[in-house]
Amino acid sequence: RNYKMAALVGSLPKFRNLWTDPLRCFHLSTLFTQIRILRRPICTASDYNPLLSHEGLPRFNEFQTTHVAPAIEKLTHDFESDFTEFETKLQELYRGKDTLIDQPWSTIIEPLEKIGNPLSYAWGVTSHLNRVCNSQELRDVYQKAQPLVVQASMKASQSVPVYDTLQNLHQKVKESSVSLDEGQQRVVKSFLRSARNGGVTLRGKEKERFNAIQLRLAELKNKFSNNVLDATKAFSLVLTNPEDVRGLPESLLQMTAEAAAAENHTDLKETRRNIDPKSGPWKLSLDLPCFEPFMKYSQNRSLREQLYMAYITRASQGESDNSNIIEEIRKLRQEKATLLGFENYAMLSLDSKMAGSPSEVWKMITDLHSKSKLAAEKELINLQVMY
């Protein structure tokens, strides 16, 4: 790598005519961009990382927990470097409110999206796996990497050069000085709203406090999710009476019988040889593939109630109790909303939604309640007659 960079830099004096020859002239920033890319770490076959491949579908089968830290560290570093360069170019283009940028979509919006795509893709894959293939090892690396991603996100949303340029573009569109189609205008408005709600207009101590809140909220949300997952995994109910599983489909009987047998056999083939889905035992859990069909097909009212109560009270007691976390999230959200000029967090949340205001939400709920209650009462009577 050093050899390539030295060779490229050393060749500059030999090509001074590049800056004057109109047939061979190229922008100086392009050359420096190439130099910066050469200085980035080069992946070899031995350190291949699927999180750095952003084409096609995610390569889940190649993913390992050890891929997260190096990938996110590299991608956040690259993002911040590329974004800083992008801001510099925007400042060169944007000279005030009278600036008219040529081809604004390809000059501003498309580069802005491309810069963020690699990090967004890799973090999306990591976040998904943290939800569906959760382990303590993955939790640890996820928790360590999350602040880097949040900080990168704040850098983008709080960029004054980007915000000023987009504000100018939005104004030029309103004045008909620049033409954007309806979809493009919506994207520009969305960027501006995200920037405002991301703290771009805050300064000094208010900005510092806002950023601290963002980092803390990300940490709390992660803890909240982990507690719910732990509480879900901690619950189980073993049934031995065939009367308790009346009405359940064969697929659910098979799955719950395998779950019960797996407690005594680690080998999957051995587990399946030692089960009888019709005679049990059957192990129930709060995982959705078990919970939902059981609630739908079980003919045992008391068991349905037991599972339902367990499901809706997850993470409400013991080591996985989310009560204090919920209260802290609520307070921080209110403080965040106040810093951004909103009356409450509901107003902030609805700023990007169709409803527009809490009163509109309640109006819709009230209207839906009044119009659906009569039909629901009729269905209840039919069910009571049936059973």
UniProtKB/TrEMBL annotation:
Residues 294-386 form the Peptidase M3A/M3B catalytic domain. Binds 1 zinc ion. The keyword Cytoplasm does not apply. Its cofactor is Zn(2+). It comes from the Eukaryota. Gene3D superfamilies: 1.10.1370.40, Neurolysin, domain 3. Residues 74-207 form the Oligopeptidase A N-terminal domain. One of its GO terms (molecular function) is metal ion binding. GO terms for biological process: peptide metabolic process; proteolysis. Keywords: Hydrolase, Metal-binding, Metalloprotease, Protease, Zinc. Belongs to the peptidase M3 family. This is Uncharacterized protein. The lineage of its organism: Eukaryota, Metazoa, Cnidaria, Anthozoa, Hexacorallia.
